[in-house]
Structure formats: C-alpha cells, structure tokens
C-alpha cells in the first residue's frame, strides 16, 4: 500500500511539473508549490519506506498542506484564477485522501476526507469552475479514498486468513510430530521392556541371572530417560555397533545368535538405528515363536543395486531361524512385525521382506535403500 499510494502521488506530481512548466513559467509561486509538494511527498513516503509504515503526523501534514493549503496559496499568490491553472494542485487531494485512508483510523479518515471535500469545493468555486467539474473532481477524491481503504481492508483480511491457515498448519504439524514421537516410544517399549517382561512372565529364564539383571537395568535406564526428556535426537551410531547391541540384548534373554558382518558402510544415524531396531524385533520373534533358541544374523554392505561401485551404499540385514515357519497366506502380521519392522524400514526409505513356509523356518530381510 505504501508503494501503491506513492506511485499514485508520483503520477500527480508529474502532472504538476508538466503543467507548471507549460502554463506558469513566469510564476515563481507555482514552482514553489511544486517544490513544496515534492518535498513533503519525499518526507512522507521516504519515511514510510524506511520505517515500514506511515507516520500519522506526516500524513496529516500532507493532507493539510498539499490537499488544503496549496490550492488557496496558488489562488492567492500564484495567479491561479481559472480551473485549468489550479487543476494540478487540486488533483494532489486524491493521492492525499488515498494515503489518509490507509494510514489513519476510520474516524480520522472521515475527518480528513471531509476536510478535503470542503476545501476543494470552496477552491473550485473561487475560480469559477462549473458544477460538472466540481462534482467530477469531488467524486474522484472520494473514490480515491474509498478504493484505497477497500484494498487495504482486503489485504489485511487476506493476511489474517493466511495467518490463521499457517497457525492451523503449524498446530497440525506439531500434533503429527507428537504422534510420531509417541509411536517411536511405543515401538521402543515393545521391542525392549515388553519383550523382557513377556520372557520373564513365561518363566523360560531365571530372573536372577546376571545377564537378565543387566538387561533389566539397561531398560530401566531407558525408561528413566524416556520420562525425563522428549527429544528424539540420537547420538551418532555405527551400524555394526548398533547391531551388536541388539544381538547382546537378545543373548541376554537366552537366545543364541550367530552374527556375521561384512563390509558395512557408513550410513546416517537414523538408518543405523532403524535397521538395528527392526533386526532386534526380528530376533525377539525368533525367541518367542521359533522354538529353536538359535538365530542367525547377517549384515552385508556394498554398492546400490545396478551400481558398479559408485557413490552411495547398500545395506542388507537378514535374520534367519530354523523353526517351524508358518503359512504367510493364513498369517496376519502382528504389532511387532508391522510397526517395529515394516514401518520402521519404510520410514527410512528401506524395505522389509519375510520369506517363510511351513517347516522351512523364517527369513527376514531388511534392505536399505529400498
């Protein structure tokens, strides 16, 4: 709105400069009027651009000087005795009313426009303007104020709507972030604390065994951190270290794990964490369902599929057991397999696949990238 009203004023000043140069070369008061109008316009709009909005005192000065006093000064001392010689100063009232409409509050806008209408009607009467000229000019003056006010009202309304939409979007994003954080905590609890409690409740291991007590202590510490902080920031983790942690945790619950690693690459922390957590849940499933007490974990790295060794890396982690297996057509994936394995891999751009058949054991393959 500053730029729009400034360009409106610039068009009026251009008319004034041309008009004075053509009609009033011998009238120094006319030139002084142009210089006054230009100087006040530079003050009003220069300050507005520098500060980001209009200064109300300066807008009132513009209305009073350019809109009201200048036409009478030209009539009294500048030789303006007919409408054509006074017209360039009169049109400045239109841009003065437009600036007032956006810079002043509603009551003061009405007062400024009423003052401009009254003084311009008197001014045109003083130079003998016809009723058509007076009515047309006053209509232009009022229209300038009304259109500027409507544009300004519309922009503010659209700004409020945009602010409301942004606030709703931020609220929805915060809600999604909180849900994602809760979901990640639920997955971690399912894969650690719940797995330990389930094993203890089944009576399959000695709760007083040192390795079981050590695991319970680790998971109690995890629960304590979970209560005390909500940040999901993770320390940097090597993929081999992350996998070894879940292997040791599984062995602490009396599952024998044969683990092999080969050429593991550097991967982002979130990828290492997701692969390790998904592998940990696969080992939990072996312990709970396979009935063999023995699992095989293999992790290998290499170039992406179809690549001869260029940029990037591929990681494949497999967890295999030699248990009874199951019929995939008749099996509905449970919470652990669905959320802790498939969903985790999908979130990092990876893929999880389960290969099994009755009597053939189960092979879970975790691949990143997909």
Automatic annotation (TrEMBL):
Q: Which UniProt keywords apply?
A: ATP-binding, Kinase, Membrane, Nucleotide-binding, Transferase, Transmembrane, Transmembrane helix, Two-component regulatory system
This protein's superkingdom?
Bacteria
Please provide, alphabetically and separated by semicolons, the GO molecular function terms listed in this UniProt record: ATP binding
Segment forming the signal sequence: none
Q: What is this protein called?
A: ATP-binding protein
Q: Does the keyword Membrane apply?
A: yes
Domain Histidine kinase/HSP90-like ATPase stretches: 273-369
Q: Where are the transmembrane segments?
A: 29-47, 59-78, 84-104, 109-127, 133-155
What InterPro entries does this protein's entry cite?
HATPase_C_sf, HATPase_dom, Sensor_HK_TwoCompSys
Q: Which residues form a coiled coil?
A: none
Q: Name one Pfam family in it.
A: HATPase_c
Q: Organism source for this protein?
A: Streptomyces exfoliatus (Streptomyces hydrogenans)
